[in-house]
Design a protein that fits this description.
mainly alpha; 0% strand; single chain; elongated; DUF1127 domain-containing protein; 5 helices
């Protein structure tokens, strides 16, 4: 009996819509990362506690400070 070892290549079983979810999530992530509020939070988080204190902020208050006009806190 002869045995043949050949690489098996099958046609892709994914539908054109299979990657749609990941493309949508990637787009939403890109939109969120482009948000100036997120960049402001990152900028403030990079400061030391002493620098934040000079601004009258505590580290736990950064989100509240940046989002103060949308959260009504």
């Amino acid at each position: 009996m002869a045995h043949i070892n050949a690489p098996y290549t099958a046609a892709p079983t994914t539908s054109p819509l299979a990657g749609l979810g990941s493309r949508i999530l990637n787009a939403l992530a890109a939109i969120a990362e482009a948000n100036p509020r997120l960049r402001e939070m990152e900028r403030l988080n990079a400061k030391t506690d002493d620098q934040l204190a000079a601004m009258g902020l505590k580290r736990q208050d950064i989100a509240r400070y940046v989002l103060r006009d949308t959260l009504y806190l």
